[in-house]
Amino acid sequence: LRLDEALTKTGHRVRYFNGILEIMSISFPHESLSGHIGRLLEVYCDFRDIDFQTWGSTTQKQEGKAAAEPGESYNFGLERKNKPELIIEVGLSSGGIDKLELWTALGAKEAWIWQNDRLHGFARSDDGPFQPITESRLLPGLKLEWIEAHARLQPSSQAVRAFRAQLQAAH
To answer: Quick one: three-class SS letters along the chain?
Structure first.
């Protein structure tokens, strides 16, 4: 955590899990894409009147075992929670810490991971492992292929408008 703090202003993030330390360089494509996916999620929530709270890239930690900053993260509903339910990750490189094991340890219920130009969704029960999903369990009716398709549109403003129009047409 001290190393993460020391590197804060350098454009790097530090992750720690089960004795493995990972230092990542944060780039515009990474930050832009995770924010882009988050905006699309927010459009869906707004359209469906789903209350949400953003956690952004707030560091999540389990003392002595794990610490990480997601690309974006969220809670849903009005109840105040002590950790995010949904994690959005953008993996522009391979290797390193297993993201699903990490987010299991940190208590996430659902993880969306952008890897190899695809959005991969995973959900878990309170005590089970992550399983692949094609539709969000936290956001009923949200097909991840919709997010994936609109995440490829640039700029973000056009993607948001196109996604909103798709939701209205389907309604």
So the answer is: CHHHHHHHHHCEEEEEECCEEEEEECCHHHHHHHHHHHHHHHHHHHHCCCCEEECCCCCEEECCCEEECCCEEEEECCCCCCCCCEEEEEECCCCCCCHHHHHHHCCCCEEEEEECCEEEEEECCCCCCCEEECECCCCCCCEHHHHHHHHCCCCHHHHHHHHHHHHHHHC
How many other CB atoms are there within 10 angstroms of residue 30's CB atom?
A: 19
For residues 7 and 23, is the Cβ–Cβ distance under 8 A?
A: yes
Q: How do beta strands 110-115 and 118-123 pair?
A: antiparallel
- Rounded Cα distance, 8 and 6, in Å: 6
pLDDT, block means (10 residues), the chain with 171 residues: 60 67 61 86 97 84 79 93 92 72 91 94 91 97 97 93 96 81
Report the DSSP beta bridge partners of residue 13: 24
Which of 151, 40, 59 is CA-nearest to residue 102?
Answer: 59
Predicted local distance difference test score (pLDDT) of residue 2: 64
Query: Minimal CA–CA distance to 76: which of 114, 127, 119, 110?
Result: 110
